[in-house]
Amino acid sequence: MAVETGQSVTKAAGTPGARGRGHRTDHKTPKTPGRLRRALATHWYAWSMVAPVVIVIGVIIGYPLGRGVWLSFTDADEANVERTIGVNHIPATYEYVGLDNYRAILGDGLFWDRLGWTVLWTVSCVALSFAIGLALAVMLNRAFKGRTLYRTALILPWAVPAFVSVFTWRLLFNERSGLFNELLTGAGLGRISWLNDPAWAKISVITVNVWVGVPFMLIALLGGLQSIPAELYEAAEMDGASPWQRFRHITLPGLRSVSSTVILLSTIWTFNMFPVIFLLTRGGPGDATEILVTYAYRLSFVISPRDYSTSAAWGVLILLLLALVTAAYRRALRKQGDTW
Amino acid sequence: MRRGIAATALFAAVAMTASACGGGDNGGSGTDAGGTELSGTVTFWDTSNEAEKATYQALAEGFEKEHPKVDVKYVNVPFGEANAKFKNAAGGNSGAPDVMRTEVAWVADFASIGYLAPLDGTPALDDGSDHLPQAAASTRYEGKTYAVPQVIDTLALFYNKELLTKAGVEVPGSVAELKTAAAEITEKTGATGLYLRGDDPYWFLPYLYGEGGDLVDEKNKTVTVDDEAGVRAYRVIKDLVDSKAAITDASDGWNNMQNAFKSGKVAMMVNGPWAIEDVKAGARFKDAGNLGVAPVPAGSAGQGSPQGGWNLSVYAGSKNLDASYAFVKYMSSAKVQQQTTEKLSLLPTRTSVYEVPSVADNEMVKFFKPAVDKAVERPWIAEGNALFEPIRLQMANVLSGETSPDEAAANTGDAYRKLLKDYK
To answer: Measured between CA atoms, how close is A311 to chain B, in angstroms?
Structure first.
C-alpha cells in the first residue's frame, strides 16, 4: 500500500525525474485515477476492515432512520401499511404527502405547548442535577471517614433500574397511601395531590428525574475534580484566596471540559427521558407532563389506528431540535476557547 | 436522540416489512375435514384480572382434557397492556397468540386492520343464535363475524351496606341523591361517599348517558359528545369531586378505587361484575352479604350505563387455526360459561345458560342481567376504542380545574371529528 501511495504521489506531482525521462505522452491525463479511485486504492485495506461496522451501523441505524424520515413524508398509519397476516395480504395504500405532516404539526398549538414544557423540563432538570451533582462532588472530593460508603450510596440511584426507582417514587407520591402524604398528615399538614395536580405533577417528575440524574453528574464531576492539580489550590491559599474565590477561579475552570460534556449529554438525555415521565404519570394528569417523545410514543403506540407518519415527523423534529441545540452549544463553547 | 426516532422508525419498518412467513404451512398441526384428532399448541392470551385469572387458567387448560394432543399455553396479559401488546405482535408478525380474549370495542379495531380471522362458517361460531343479540352485535364488523361472545357486563353502583346503614341513608338512585347521601356518610362515618374513576374514560359513560348524551350518532354520522349533555356530564363529575362527595385520582385509579372501597374508606363505587371477586377478598367484605349492588346513579335524563364485555377472537396469522376454532368453541360453550358464572359471578352471553339453576340463583346475575338488558350499546366501529383517549385527556383536565366543562366537551368533539373523517 505504502509503495503504491508513493508512486501515485510521484506521478501526480509530476516530479522532475519523470519529466526528465521525457515521457510526455498524451494519455497521461486519462490514466490519472480520480479522487475516489485514488482514495480507494490508498485506503482499501482500511475500508475493508471497517466495512462490517459500516454495514451493521447502516442497517441498524441508517435504515430505520431513513425509513423514519421517509415515513414522515407520507400518510402511513396502521391501517394502510403493507402486511401479511396468515392468509390475509394487505397491500400498502399510503401515499407521499410531502411536508403536510410537518405543516400540520407546526401549525398546531399542541406542538408548541409540548415544546415549551419539554424545554422547561430539560432546563430545570439539567440545572438542578448539575448543581446538586457538583455540590456533592466537591464535598466528596476531600478525605473524610466513610467516604467510600457515601460514594457508593450516592451512586445507587444510577445502579437501580429506572423502572424500579420510578415505581418506588410512584408509591411514595400516591395521594392516598403514599409515604409523603402520610408524613404531611402526620405533621398536621394537608395532603398534596402529587400526581393529580398539574403543577405538582410537574414538580414531581422533575424531582424524580433529578434524583435519577445526579449520580451521573456526581461521578463525572468527581473525576474532573480529581484531575485538578492540588498545587493550584495550595498556591491560591498562600495568596490568600477565599474558598469561594478558589471555587470560582480554580474549580470551575478546571472542570470546564468535563462539565461542558456532561451538560450536553444530560440535555440530550433529559429532552428524550421517556421512562421517568411515562412510568410516573403517563404524561398526565391530562397531558400536563407530556414531553415531545412521550407524545410521539402516544401517536405511534397508543392511539388507534397507530399514526406512524405523524409520529415519525415528531421524531424528525425532535432530532432536528437536538441537532440544532448541539451545534449551537458547541459553537458557543468554541468561541470561548474550548477545544472540545 | 437517535434512539427515539430509531425505535419509532424501527417499529414502523418491522411492521411494514412484515415477512410472508406467517401463513403457509400448518406446522404439522390442525386437522383435515375427515375429523382426525386436533394437535399442536394453542396460545391463549387472557386479560382477566388478578382475582379471576386462576379460574380462567383452569378453564382454559380443561380443553386439553377434551383434546389430549393439544397443548394450551395460557398467558395472562394485564388488561391495560393487552391491546398494545397484541398490536405489536400481530403487526410485527411474531409472538401473537392464536386466541385472545378481546374487549368488545377492540374487535372492530383489530378486524379493520386485518388482524383477526373471520369466523363465519367455522366451528368456532357454535350455535350462534343462543348468544344474546347485543353481545353478538359487538362481534361483527362490516358484515363478517370476527369474534365469539364470552362474557357480557355493564357498570353498576357497588355499595357498602354497613356504612350506608350506619349513616342512615338509602341507596342513592340519582346524582343528586348521591350528593346528599355522601354528605351524611362523611358526617356519620368519616368515610367518603363515592370513588370516581377520573383516569378511565369508560367510567365517564354513565354520567354522559345519564344526561341523555352519547359519544357519536352512528346512524346519522354525527359527533354528539359535545352537545349540551356532554357539557353537563363533565360538570357533574367536576361537581361531585369539588363538593367532596367523591374522591378521584389521575393515575392508578383501579388500585386506589379497589383499596378505598375494600377497606371501607369510601362507601360506594361504580364498577362492573369483574370487580366482584376482588371486592370479596377485601377486609370489609369477608361477609359477602355486606356488598350491595344497585343501578348506576341517574343523571338529569335517566339511568344509563355502557354495555361491555369480552369476546374471543382468533388471530388471522395463527398457525393452528383448526385447534384455535375448537378452543374458542370450547371457551364460549354453555358449560364453560356456566362455570365462569359459578366461580366468578360473571355474566354468560348464552341465553340457555341463564336457565341453569346455579346461574339463575346467583345474586349478582340476578342484579346484573336486567341491568345488561338495559345497557347502552356502544358504536361498534373501527374507531370505537379510539374514542376513549380524548375523554381521558379532558376528564383529567376538568377534574384538575385546567379546563372548563364547556371547553372540555368542545375539545372532545374536535378530537372526534379529526378521528372520524366522514362524521359531522
So the answer is: 8
Structural domain harbouring A271? 109-335
Pick from B6, B252, B403: CB nearest A174: B252
Q: What is the residue-level pLDDT of chain B in tens, covering all 424 positions?
A: 344 444 444 444 444 333 333 333 333 344 444 456 788 899 999 999 888 999 999 999 999 998 999 999 999 999 988 999 999 898 877 889 999 999 999 999 999 888 999 999 899 888 888 999 999 999 999 999 999 999 999 999 999 999 999 999 999 999 999 999 999 999 999 999 999 998 899 999 999 999 999 999 988 999 999 999 999 999 999 999 999 999 998 888 898 999 999 999 999 999 999 999 899 999 999 998 999 999 999 999 999 999 999 999 999 989 899 999 999 999 999 999 999 999 998 999 999 999 999 999 998 898 999 889 889 999 899 888 889 989 999 999 999 888 999 999 999 999 999 888 888 8
Residue A8 domain-assigned (yes or no): no
Q: Are A163 and A275 in contact (CB under 8 A)?
A: yes
The span from the CA of A216 to the CA of A326, in Å, is 20
Instruction: Read off the pTM.
Output: 0.80
How many domains does chain B divide into? Answer: 2
- Whether residue B35 is contained in a domain is answered as no
Q: Which amino acid, residue B383?
A: E
| Residues of B with Cβ-Cβ distance to A320 under 8 angstroms | none
CATH classification at residue A187: 1.10.3720.10
For B319, which residue in chain A has the nearest alpha carbon?
A86
Same domain, B268 and B385: yes
- Residue B3, in any domain of the structure: no
Q: Does the ipTM surpass 0.90? A: no
Position A266 in a domain: yes
Q: How far apart are CA B241 and CA B399, in angstroms?
A: 7
**Which residue matches cell numbers 403457509?**
B24
Interchain CB contact of B44 with A (< 8 Å): no
B395 and B261 in a common domain? yes
Residue of A295, A304, A321, A325 best to disrupt the B interface, most CBs of B under 10 A: A304
Domain span at B191: 156-306+381-419
Q: How many CA atoms lie within 13 A of B232 on its CB side?
A: 18
Backbone angles phi and psi of B98, in degrees to 5: -75, -40
**How far is B365 from B339, CA to CA, in rounded Å?**
13
Does residue A11 belong to any structural domain of this protein? no
Q: How would you class A81 by CB atoms within 10 Å of its CB: exposed for 0-12, middle for 13-18, buried for 19 or more?
A: buried
